[in-house]
Amino acid sequence: METLTWITLAIIVLVLLAWYLTYSAARLDRLHAKVEGAAAALDAQLVRRAESALELATSGLLDPASSLLLVDAASQSLDRTVSHDEGHFLRFESFAGRESAESDLTGALNAALSDQSVADLKMRGAGIAEELLERVSAAGLRVQLARRFYNQAVTEVQRVRRKRVVRIFRLAGYAEMPETVEFDDELTLTSSGG
């Protein structure tokens, strides 16, 4: 009778372990999917910001030097958009070479949209300038939010993947470890209420 108790106990422990491993693997898979979704959202917001910067640069409202600077930075940003793999999944390292281009675009926007140039813009093309500035400001804010959500999702995946049980049983499989995205996305126009 004692042997039967030990066998039953062993089976219960194995079933609980199998359930826990299955649950952990499914949770990790959901977290990876969340990171992929957040990466797609961040990519879309970066494209939207670059397009709004291009629209402002080609509006004719900025001086030629600022327009050229903005067109160059926005074009660099658009050239580095994230590509999808055959399986339509984003690769986590896809933002690695893009961080400097996005910081450059932020710098170009901040340089082109100083307090004085914003005032000049509003005087030159009242209605359209206001609309373009609002679009750039809104796109900048959405980039900040999308990057924050992406980095939070990545941090959660990294935390779960550091757990001993995930490493021992290789629950992440061959999935790449995602990395946070760090670049300057603080628009002075956003904080000044453009």
Q: Can you put this structure into words, describing what you see?
A:
The chain has helices at 2-57, 64-79, 99-112, 115-124, 126-161, 164-168, 188-191. By secondary structure, the chain is an all-alpha fold. The chain has one domain (2-81, 90-191). Helix 1 (2-57) packs antiparallel against helix 5, helix 2 (64-79) runs antiparallel to helix 3 and helix 4 crosses helix 5 (126-161). The chain is rod-shaped, with a radius of gyration of 24 Å. The chain starts with a helix and ends with a helix.
Descriptors:
194 residues, mainly alpha, 73% helix, rod-shaped, disordered C terminus
Offer a quick outline of the entry.
The chain is mainly alpha-helical and 194 residues long. The chain contains 7 helices and no strands. Residues 85-90 and 190-194 have low confidence and may be disordered.
Q: Based on the structure, what is the oligomeric state of the protein chains?
A: single chain
**Uncertain runs:** 85-90, 190-194
- Count all strands and give the number: 0
Structurally, the number of domains stands at 1
How would you sum up the global shape? rod-shaped
Structural class: mainly alpha
| Helix share bin | over 70%
Structural Rg:
24 Å
Describe the SSE topology.
Layout: H1 2-57, H2 64-79, H3 99-112, H4 115-124, H5 126-161, H6 164-168, H7 188-191
Helix pairs in contact: 1-2, 1-5, 2-3, 4-5
